[in-house]
Amino acid sequence: MTERKRFAPPAIQEFAPKLAEVTDTVLFGDIWERPGLSPRDRSLVTVTALAALYRNDQLGFHLGKALENGVTKDELVEALTHLAFYAGWPNAMTAVTQLKAIVEESEQSG
C-alpha cells in the first residue's frame, strides 16, 4: 500500500490527528488537485490571501510551495508589492521579508 504524502506538521499529526488527516486528504489531496487551476496559480492565490490576512504562520510554507510550483521570486515580489496597496503595507513588508529569507536560504543550500 502506498503511503500518502503528509503536509500537516508532525506536531499537529500527533496532537490533532483528525485535523492533520483532513489537511492531507481534503485540502492537499482534493482541493489542491482540482483541475480548475494549476498548482502554480493556486499557490499565487494562496500566498496573496495569507499575506493579505496576515496569516504568517502558514505563509512561509506557502511561499516555499509557490516557488516549487513555478511561481518565480520576481512574480511573488510583484504580487506582494501590488498587494501592499490593497491589504496594507505591514502585511506586504512582512511577506516580502519572509520571502527574502526563504530565497536566501535556498540559495545557500544549493
Automatic annotation (TrEMBL):
Entries under Gene3D superfamilies matching the protein: AhpD-like (1.20.1290.10)
InterPro entries for the chain: 4CMD/NDH-1_regulator (IPR052512), AhpD-like (IPR029032), CMD-like (IPR003779)
Domain Carboxymuconolactone decarboxylase-like span(s) in chain numbering: 17-100
Name of this chain's protein: Carboxymuconolactone decarboxylase family protein
Upper taxonomic lineage: Bacteria, Bacillati, Actinomycetota, Actinomycetes, Kitasatosporales
